[in-house]
Amino acid sequence: MDPKINGAFNFRDLKSPAVLMPRLRPRLLYRSDHLGALDEDDASHFRALGIRRVLDFRGIFERAEAVCPVPTVTVHSLAIEPTVVQVLGALVAAGEKLTREDAVAHMQDTYRGFVRQNTHRFAEFFAHLMHSDTPTVFHCTAGKDRTGFAAALILHALGATHDDVMRDYLLTNQRLKPMSMKGWSLPAHVVEVLYGVRPEFLQAAYQAIDEDYGSLEGYFSDGLHLGAAERRRLLELYLL
């Protein structure tokens, strides 16, 4: 069972009942929303779990607004700047009447952008993971999109099935805080789309991978620089 982390609703071990991988080592890889609201009890949990490495996919302003307060971890920035809220906000300000389908399409573009503009960040992510099996948290702001794609990649690299990956990905919908319209300038039906995850979001990333790299294996080798030796290293570190 995941420890109770008061300041991070979407904190969980990648080894979970949603992922049917008996050889995946527990208590090494954790995915989460941002760590800026952790309290002293949370910091104590981190120490008890041996967590020493944090891989942060948030952009510059996101990090500045919610700094990780745990002094015993090393935070590595793998910055991917958020864009979808800004793009949709500009459209609304220009008088566009956005539909739910518009929001879904823009989220799909965001996921294609993970592949087409940010593959270097996910390559850095794997480089950190291959350095050692130090217990690690990787996260963004909500722990659902940038983090969700990273989780999908590491699970695939370790041999998870597509169904396992999708179950882990969709589990986020059960872990997020209840939706609130506070602070949003977008229509409620658009916020509802942005607030959760949907299979078609992740599928858009897979589509971009297939179009640009031929296959997921092609993406691993040509995009993420994970050759045979690197794949073996990952299996040695993170599988029993």
TrEMBL record:
Query: InterPro entries from the entry?
Result: Prot-tyrosine_phosphatase-like, Tyr/Ser_Pase_IphP-type, Tyr_Pase_AS
Coiled-coil intervals, chain numbering: none
Q: Which GO terms describe its molecular function?
A: phosphoprotein phosphatase activity
Please give the Gene3D superfamilies that the UniProt record associates with this protein: Protein tyrosine phosphatase superfamily
Which family does this protein fall into?
A: Belongs to the protein-tyrosine phosphatase family.
Descriptive protein name: Protein-tyrosine-phosphatase
Native source species: Caenimonas koreensis DSM 17982
